[in-house]
Write a structure and sequence with these properties.
- By secondary structure, the chain is α/β, with parallel strands linked by helices.
- The protein folds into three domains: 259 residues, TIM Barrel; 92 residues, no CATH class; 57 residues, Double Stranded RNA Binding Domain.
- 40% of the residues lie in helices and 20% in strands.
- It is built from 17 helices and 16 strands.
- The strands form four sheets. The chain has an eight-stranded parallel β-barrel, surrounded by eight helices.
- The chain is elongated, with a radius of gyration of 29 Å.
Length: 526
């Protein structure tokens, strides 16, 4: 059975708290979804706001490879004619091949929300779909609140579906709008609908009980062939069904056909891209696409996956564009370090004294507050120092940082530093936006004449965490830095009661790592 995937990130996803997509964002996301191979992209509601109306005008200029753009709308008003109804005029103005119409299927919603009779609601649905079909549209009907309606008034909920079907709806989409239905109820209800209806069924679920993915899977098992959801599960309240979980579950785990015009290995890339456009920090613990989805920390786990990844991985991470990661921590054993050594191209034999020494040091440092999971640059440097294959690129003679604050003026930070490179001493000073930035600027200024390649690198992230607040301002803190040269990113860290000392440790490792990778690159090229 082939499944059609329908992405509503640009409408339902945009209703998520803290998300506001600009017109440019929406157009770029459309291109990304099309490149991934999404079948249908719901662009918005043309009658609801000027931005969505402009989107449907602008999106026509994008040469899409596969996806079909969908315009979403409610039914026409109860007391209007379709030819003059504002909702229909806006929908037709979007000029899309496909339209999705939402209509009430729960009698309580019809009476309390629409304030019309049950028969009037049926006429609104039928007239809207019929009008659009007469104009050559493909029409999907979203039966809003269907599962709640079916459980409370089965007869009326089915009358709604039949009215839509008889009017020509191409797909009847059953919606768990409040997100409160259980998977076993979804399976049985969809099965009953499937037995009494001949047309195609779709499923649209919300995640208010953390069941949206499970409900979607069960709906497909019961006969739905169109799946609606959002990338990363964004949506109103607790979100919509997460397509980043649904798609690999259906295609990889369950063997359904779908995404024939796309590439499942781009799933993680898509997930990260939508996070970036939404200005959200990616959730590293997301199934399939999260950074931690295939990360291993425990020594027993690492030992096993080195022999056979299937021991602790439910699928090959490459299928969804992810990768296996091994984390070094106080839970690590020799297998973990040997795995990281292979990753770094180092030769470390099990049982060798250096392995035990590095392992002892890792556990000791983690006890003091170090955490190498996000600072593999520092970890690699430590391992290479232990093997005696890393040289010091410079020595610190001393540094001083001054922060001056005068009344009514912003504070000013200045750092002076003296370093020794070989037999030469360099003494310089620099200003900065803060004390750490001033120190960073001064150190780079001192080293640039010796190592010009440092001009290519920059600090892209800087995090400070208080490890124990019981000592107040004298508490131990951990500084984590992320640096980049445009080709590679690496993390380094430092721990101290003094924020400048912790920052210095992370900063030196960051520069050391950059010089190390450049030296190794030259050796390979030479």
């Amino acid at each position: 059975m082939t499944i059609d995937f329908y992405d509503t990130t640009l409408r339902d996803g945009a209703q998520s708290e803290d998300i506001t997509f600009s017109l440019t964002d929406k157009l770029l996301i459309t291109q990304k979804l099309d490149e991934f191979g999404m079948d249908f992209i719901e662009g918005g509601w043309p009658g609801s706001n000027p931005k969505d109306l402009q989107y449907f005008s602008e999106v026509k200029r994008i040469p899409l490879k596969h996806a079909k753009i969908v315009a979403f709308s409610s039914t026409m008003k109860a007391d209007s004619n379709p030819e003059s109804d504002e909702i229909m005029l806006a929908l037709l103005g979007a000029d899309t091949e496909v339209a999705t119409i939402v209509g009430k299927s729960w009698d309580m919603q019809v009476r309390d929300a629409l304030r019309v009779s049950l028969d009037t609601n049926l006429k609104m649905i039928s007239r809207t779909i019929g009008y659009l079909k007469e104009r050559g549209k493909t029409v999907f009907f979203d039966a809003e609140h269907f599962f709640d309606g079916y459980k409370r008034n089965q007869n009326y909920a089915m009358r709604v579906l039949r009215s839509a079907s008889e009017a020509g709806a191409d797909v009847l989409v059953l919606c768990d709008t409040n997100g409160g239905t259980m998977p076993f109820d979804v399976f049985s209800i969809v099965g009953e609908v499937r037995e009494s209806m001949t047309g195609r069924l779709g499923i649209h679920t919300h995640n208010d009980t953390e069941m949206a993915v499970a409900n979607t899977i069960m709906a497909v098992k019961a006969g739905c062939t169109q799946v609606q959801g959002t990338t990363n599960g964004y949506g109103e309240r607790c979100g919509n069904a997460n397509l980043c979980s649904i798609i690999p579950n259906l295609l990889v785990k369950m063997g359904y056909d779908g995404l024939k015009a796309g590439d499942l290995s781009k799933l993680r890339e898509l997930s990260l891209y939508i996070d970036e456009m939404a200005n959200f920090i990616p959730d590293k613990h997301r199934p399939f696409v999260g950074e931690s989805a295939f990360a291993h920390k425990g020594g027993i786990h690492v030992s096993a996956i080195r022999k056979n990844p299937q021991t602790y991985e439910h699928m090959a991470p490459q299928l969804v564009g992810n990768r296996q990661r091994v984390l070094v921590s106080d839970l690590s054993g020799e297998s973990t370090l040997l795995h990281k050594a292979e990753e770094y191209g180092l030769e470390m034999e099990r049982g060798r004294k250096v392995v035990k020494e590095v392992l002892r040091k890792v556990k000791e440092l983690e006890h003091l507050g170090y955490q190498f999971e996000g600072a593999e640059g520092s970890l690699e440097l430590m391992m290479k120092r232990a093997l005696g294959i890393h040289r010091k690129y410079f020595d610190l003679i001393g540094f001083r940082v001054i922060v001056e604050k005068k009344e009514k003026n912003d504070s000013v930070s200045e750092a002076s530093i003296m370093v020794k490179v070989g037999d030469r001493i360099e003494h310089t000073a620099s200003l900065g936006a803060g004390p750490v930035n001033a120190l960073d600027n001064a150190l780079r200024k001192a080293l640039h004449k010796f190592y010009p390649v440092l001009r290519d690198m920059s600090l892209v992230d800087y995090k400070v965490r208080v490890l124990s607040a019981q000592d107040g301002t004298s508490s131990v803190i951990r500084v984590l830095m992320e640096s980049s040269d445009g080709q590679k990113n690496w993390g380094t860290l430092g721990v101290s009661q003094n924020i400048m000392e912790a920052s210095w440790q992370a900063l030196v490792d960051s520069i050391d790592y950059k010089l190390l990778i450049e030296e190794e690159k030259e050796e390979k090229e030479g």
